[in-house]
Amino acid sequence: MLLSIENLHVRYGGITALSGVSIDVPEGETVLLVGANGAGKSSTINAVIGLVPVAGGRIVFDGADLGAVPCERRARLGIGYSPEGRRVFASLSVTDNVLSGAFGLGRVKQKEALDWLCSVFPLLVDRAKQPAGQLSGGQQQIVALARAMASFPRLLLMDEPFLGLAPVWIKQISDAILHLRARGTTVLMTEQMARPALKLATRGYVMRGGEVRRSGTVEEIRDLALADEYL
Ligand SMILES: Nc1ncnc2c1ncn2[C@@H]1O[C@H](COP(=O)(O)OP(=O)(O)OP(=O)(O)O)[C@@H](O)[C@H]1O
Ligand SMILES: [Mg+2]
């Protein structure tokens, strides 16, 4: 198992966000967390990258307990992260935003990453020199995702990558995820828009009220995931 989340509890002050969530992400698979607003999807992802404290349970990545690993070192272990919403370095150019995700890779790998991402996302070529803060919300989302993909991470965490995007961009992102998967990247993603995400995922977890309600192959969770989409 590349990532095991075992009996995870997360609290924000007096609010319980996750109570006993267990999720397995096998190497090479694309695992989808679905569920309505407030289900606990972001809290799960953010606990893995280390942005929210764990109140109970443990998270094991590639055999190592992440509890002792600070947030910034988790990226160096090979965990890529694209947060919910659009997070770009507003004053940096589009190219520099993408390259910032490949920091520490060496020049040859950086160029390979940039060339590949430019071929998947034409926007990165058209707007290469423009400050990312000047792009539309959807365009910034593409830049943020490209940045998370630029390190060719072993595990890619994506929180609502499709949110608010036009179908043409959902297609570009889906193609990029499939390409990364072919290169060996494992994916854990959340999505309220279950339909396009179910096309990519191999396994899924339906969350509600801070707990896992159902898990299994995409076929096994499809009906419940689609029912939840309209909650
Ligand atoms: N910073 C915070 N402070 C207090 N409560 C929070 C905070 N972040 C999340 N919560 C609460 O924790 C619970 C789980 O929220 P979370 O953001 O993980 O859900 P989600 O499934 O990602 O929802 P969404 O689909 O809206 O993004 C919710 O009840 C939410 O109100
Ligand atoms: Mg969320």
Bound ligands, named by name, code or SMILES: adenosine-5'-triphosphate, magnesium ion
Helix and strand run: EEEHEEHEHHHHEHEHEEH
Task: Name the helicity range.
Answer: 25-40%
Low-confidence parts, pLDDT < 50 over ≥5 residues?
A: none
Strand order of the largest sheet: 6-7-8-3-9-10
Q: What does the main sheet amount to?
A: 6 strands, mixed
Structural class of the secondary elements?
alpha/beta
Please, what is the average pLDDT?
A: 93
**N-to-C CA distance:** 32 Å
Q: What's the total number of strands?
A: 10
Gyration radius over CA: 17 Å
Tell me the quaternary state. single chain
Strand content: 25-35%
Q: Quick one: overall form?
A: globular
Q: What is the number of helices?
A: 9
What does this structure look like?
- With 231 residues, this protein is α/β, with parallel strands linked by helices.
- The chain contains 9 helices and 10 strands.
- The strands form 2 sheets. It has a 6-stranded mixed sheet, sandwiched between helices. Strands 2-1-4-5 form a 4-stranded antiparallel sheet, with helices on one face.
- Helix 3 (94-100) packs parallel to helix 6.
- The longest helix is centred in the C-terminal third of the chain and has 16 residues, at 167-182.
- The protein is globular.
- It starts with a strand and ends with a helix.
- It binds adenosine-5'-triphosphate and magnesium ion.
- Adenosine-5'-triphosphate is lined by residues 12, 15, 17, 35, 37-43, 84, 192.
